Amino acid sequence: MPEGLHQAALDALGDPNRRAIVEILSGGERSVQEIADQLTISRPAVSRHLRMLKGAGLVDDQAEGTRRIYRLRDEGVEAVRSYFAEVWDEAVARFRLVAENTSAEER
């Protein structure tokens, strides 16, 4: 997994419209129009958001006739999942350490 991929992906997910697009794509491949039909933003705005998501490694596209079909990119999604798993594991370990080193009287 490329270094920093999770950071670019997290930055891209900072926008609610891009998060909504990722949620839509989690249900499977979609064209720009199919995505725009589910959102309250214009088709050109959807295209701009998709370009940013693609640049962040979260989506891929392929030509299908005159349309472009977008789908989630496994590597980008895995980078985000892996990042949160690592952060969560570290937080749990710290919590466990504090709990084990705190006497019953202090609790």
Share of residues in strands = 5-15%
**Radius of gyration, whole Å:** 19 Å
Q: Which strand order does the major sheet show?
A: 1-3-2
Q: How would you characterize the largest beta sheet?
A: 3 strands, antiparallel
| Average pLDDT rating | 85
CATH topology call:
Arc Repressor Mutant, subunit A
State the low-pLDDT regions, or none.
none
Number of strands: 3
**Outline type:** elongated
Write out the CATH superfamily name. Winged helix-like DNA-binding domain superfamily/Winged helix DNA-binding domain
What is the share of helical residues?
55-70%
If helices are DSSP runs of H or I spanning 4 or more residues, what is the number of helices? Answer: 5
SSE-based structural type = alpha+beta
What is the CATH first-level class name? Mainly Alpha
SSE sequence, one letter per element:
HHEHHEEH
Q: Give the N-to-C terminal Cα separation.
A: 42 Å
Number of domains: 1
| Architecture (CATH level 2) name | Orthogonal Bundle
How is this structure best described in words?
- This protein starts with a helix and ends in a 7-residue tail after the last helix.
- By secondary structure, the protein is an alpha+beta fold.
- The model has no long low-confidence stretch (mean pLDDT 85).
- The protein has one domain: Orthogonal Bundle (Arc Repressor Mutant, subunit A).
- It is elongated and about 70 Å long.
- The chain has helices at residues 5-12, 16-25, 32-37, 43-55, 74-100, and strands spanning 30-31, 59-64, 67-72.
- The longest helix is centred in the C-terminal third of the chain and has 27 residues, at 74-100.
- It is built from 5 helices and 3 strands; from the N terminus they run H-H-E-H-H-E-E-H.
